[in-house]
Cullin neddylation domain-containing protein (Adineta ricciae), 153 residues
Amino acid sequence: MLVLLLFNANATITIKQIQTETQMSLNVIHDVLCNLSEKKIIVCDEFENLNRQKSSIRLTKDFQNTKMHVKLCAPFNCTEATKNNDKKFAIQAVIIQIMKTKETLFIESLIDEVMTEMNQPNENIIRNCIDRLIEQEYLERDSRRSNLLHYLL
């Protein structure tokens, strides 16, 4: 939306002007321009090469759309880090479900149950999730046997 407002002052703008006016990074500007170009709201001579900051951009004068509203949100790029975080949260949820029903369980048994329920995730990730749940005080180790876990209600 901010990029579109820049066209109120000028009919044609450059990537460099967008960057100085909005203080956005070139990657964000590129994503916004790609999105606007896909919707055929703007016309750009060449913005694939971000080093060419002199590329001129102009609004499409004959833009028409049958919809009342045009969604301009850029597509969400799911990174590997967010996928790993989602996987860890899912593993933690399974650990909590198992421990709620069993209340006391050996670590190896818990890991085996999580692996069967979650289609073989990495054992090290499961151990890290167990340690994280101990830190968050959802689980605790037995005072006498360190490989025995208790679920804290």
Notes: Residues 80-151 form a domain with the Arc Repressor Mutant, subunit A fold (CATH 1.10.10.10). The radius of gyration is 26 Å.
